[in-house]
């Protein structure tokens, strides 16, 4: 009798689970799933970042192919309607504003030859022009604008960016004519020059375009690889930027120059705009600010067509030296 | 019978204890992250151009010893306060090169001389632990 009892005890012990055992197992499974779920989200972000890296790589290859064909990188913009550009003494383009961007010039090297062939580069591609400048004639620009507007190209947009919405500004008398143009995540970068206050500096080859401060790109002209004295692996061509900024007017747009087309490193990667009148942090970047929705920094294209991730906490002087092509300074870690 | 009941409760207790230890150690790994920035000191100041305050001037303090810059933007009275990152105010200790960049996409151009945006024309400031780190910069030019 006693033996039989023990036998039954052993059997229930080995073939059943107690409530606590079950609860512990369920809890462990719960913890493991809780660990896994954020990892799935991270895998998605990692995939998007990889695609973004590839977009920049395509820019790099296209720019190098352009360089092979034309013996120089394309100008960042040709005849932009920028502020004070009517004061430029030599090679003034007031009355001949075209707003052509480098992205349009490299289209054939991005397998977008059909779109490129629709654009007549003798005419404006957009109507942005500062009040200083004579506005482009709308009739001249119509065909080009019909070709470019409402076109979205994946290569110009980082898939992590939720702000990929077309522009809405319809004022053709101002320098923010963005309606129906698509934004781009990749912009030309300088150390501290922007296209509102520093247009004379940006004009390639001008006296203000000091050779040890200038970036790889310029207005109406750009560097050849031989101008990149710091070395192509130590100089930036493009940087990533968030599409949503503190004002919906702010660019860059790939189809046309509008004010705030450039980026500058002194803005600080991913820094946000604090309204100087109210003191409220908008949580969005100001114009000209490099950055991204990838955590911790942004992607960037170097002049050797390699793509690197720049940390937002990197040494600031190193970032400035990267943006300049002939500063002659020794680079730190980045 | 008494022996078997002890044998049954002991492993159960051990299991619960093990589970508790596991959860606590996992939790400890996720918490307790330290703020990852060096010692900072609060920095405020005023920027004027030819004696007059200017709004929307980005003030950038670049540490000469290397490191991450701190930034601030002037308000209507020319006052600024530096931020090291989105959450941390202040600047690293030591000597800084200071850049001034007019940062207004919709304001007039040429509010301050363009040379102040370059390190070659930079001004300097010494940020100390004791403070008071209040600086007044009067920029000359057009």
Automatic annotation (TrEMBL), chain A:
Coiled coil: none annotated. Keywords: Membrane, Transmembrane, Transmembrane helix. The chain crosses the membrane at residues 15-40. SUPFAM superfamilies: Pili subunits. It holds the Pfam family N_methyl. This is DUF1559 domain-containing protein. It comes from the Bacteria. Residues 41-316 form the DUF1559 domain. It comes from Blastopirellula marina DSM 3645.
Automatic annotation (TrEMBL), chain B:
This is Carboxypeptidase regulatory-like domain-containing protein. It comes from Blastopirellula marina DSM 3645.
């Amino acid at each position: 009798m006693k033996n039989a009892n023990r036998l039954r005890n052993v059997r229930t012990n080995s073939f059943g689970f107690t409530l606590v055992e079950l609860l512990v197992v369920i809890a462990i499974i719960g913890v493991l799933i809780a660990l896994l779920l954020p990892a799935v989200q991270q895998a998605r972000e990692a995939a998007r970042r990889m695609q973004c890296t590839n977009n920049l790589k395509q820019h790099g290859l296209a720019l190098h192919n352009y360089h092979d064909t034309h013996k120089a990188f394309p100008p960042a913009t040709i005849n932009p309607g920028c502020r004070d550009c009517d004061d430029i003494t030599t090679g003034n383009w007031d009355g001949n504003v075209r707003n052509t961007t480098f992205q349009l010039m490299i289209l054939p090297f991005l397998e977008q030859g059909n779109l490129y062939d629709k654009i007549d580069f003798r005419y404006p591609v957009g109507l942005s022009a500062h009040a200083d400048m004579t506005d482009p004639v709308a009739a001249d620009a119509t065909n080009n604008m019909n070709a470019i507007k409402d076109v979205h190209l994946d290569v110009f947009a980082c898939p992590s960016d939720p702000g990929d919405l077309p522009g809405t500004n319809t004022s053709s008398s101002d320098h923010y004519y963005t309606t129906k143009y698509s934004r781009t995540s990749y912009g030309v970068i300088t150390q501290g020059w922007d296209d509102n206050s520093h247009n004379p500096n940006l004009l390639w080859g001008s006296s203000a375009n000091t050779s040890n401060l200038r970036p790889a790109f310029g207005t109406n002209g750009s560097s050849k690889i031989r101008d990149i004295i710091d070395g192509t692996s130590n100089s930036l061509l493009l940087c990533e930027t968030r599409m949503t900024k503190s004002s919906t007017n702010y660019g860059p747009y790939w189809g046309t120059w509008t004010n705030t087309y450039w980026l500058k490193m002194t803005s600080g990667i991913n820094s946000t705009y604090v309204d100087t009148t109210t003191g409220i942090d908008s949580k969005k970047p100001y114009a000209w600010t490099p950055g991204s929705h990838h955590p911790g920094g942004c992607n960037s294209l170097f002049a050797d067509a390699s793509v690197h991730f720049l940390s937002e906490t990197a040494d600031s002087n190193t970032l400035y030296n990267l943006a300049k092509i002939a500063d002659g300074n020794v680079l730190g870690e980045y | 019978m008494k022996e078997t009941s002890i044998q049954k409760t002991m492993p159960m207790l051990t299991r619960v204890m093990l589970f508790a230890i596991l959860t606590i150690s996992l939790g400890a790994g996720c918490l307790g992250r330290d703020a990852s920035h060096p010692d900072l000191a609060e920095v405020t100041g005023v920027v004027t151009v030819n004696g007059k305050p200017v709004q929307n001037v980005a003030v950038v303090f670049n540490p000469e010893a290397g490191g991450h810059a701190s930034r601030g933007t002037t308000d209507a009275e020319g006052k600024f306060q530096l931020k090291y990152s989105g959450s941390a105010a202040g600047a690293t200790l030591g000597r800084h090169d200071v850049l001034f960049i007019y940062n207004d996409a919709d304001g007039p151009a040429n509010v301050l001389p363009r040379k102040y945006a370059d390190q070659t024309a930079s001004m300097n400031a010494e940020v100390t632990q004791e403070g008071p780190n209040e600086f007044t910069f009067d920029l000359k030019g057009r």
